[in-house]
């Protein structure tokens, strides 16, 4: 099974905070600001679930959230989060294998695609694309390389570390922007973090 973060669940947030400070959180909180009230949201690969609490700070009620996480340990931690008056359905499975009813207003993929080889990226991308309604928002955040030497060093270290510990299949970043543009998405906003190493983009699906 690829990219299961079970073994890292208990220290993942602490480690990412040591390495990246608040950058991973700030990038996702920036994206959450685009979510309209009363949205039906699909979160794929939410990790320990802190994103649910950030989401609840912005929208204490009215959201209908489906939270899909392949790691049982990550899902368990996420289920303990405060989610206010929002509705959250937790699914512990690979998102590409979960049959959901199409019609989500918002899809969120936080540091998900950089775990996958191209074939899995295509599978997951197409599956989520079909679940998002026309003109829906897709909030994606991942690492990117902008030509600075230290980015390569950090990226390579992460791939080695998470391959050994969590069995992730990837060894390079996927060409995710190309997938979005080929599928007809437009970028309506974007912002970079941590010296451009992290890019958060707000995509809108075609009508
Ligand atoms: C790099 S971590 C990011 C966690 C979280 N988004 C964050 O920023 O703290 C990727 C997460 O995606 C989950 N994951 C990997 N493949 C998945 C899949 N096919 N479906 C659902 N979740 C998946 C992993 O278990 C892990 O929790």
From TrEMBL:
Organism: Mucilaginibacter gossypii
Gene3D superfamilies cross-referenced by the UniProt entry: Vaccinia Virus protein VP39
Protein name as catalogued: Methyltransferase domain-containing protein
InterPro entries per record: Methyltransf_25, SAM-dependent_MTases_sf
Keyword Transmembrane helix: no
Keyword Hydrolase (UniProt): no
Alphabetic keyword roster: Methyltransferase, Transferase
One Gene Ontology biological process: methylation
Source organism superkingdom: Bacteria
A GO term for molecular function: methyltransferase activity
Pfam families: Methyltransf_25 (PF13649)
Residue stretches making up the Methyltransferase domain: 41-136
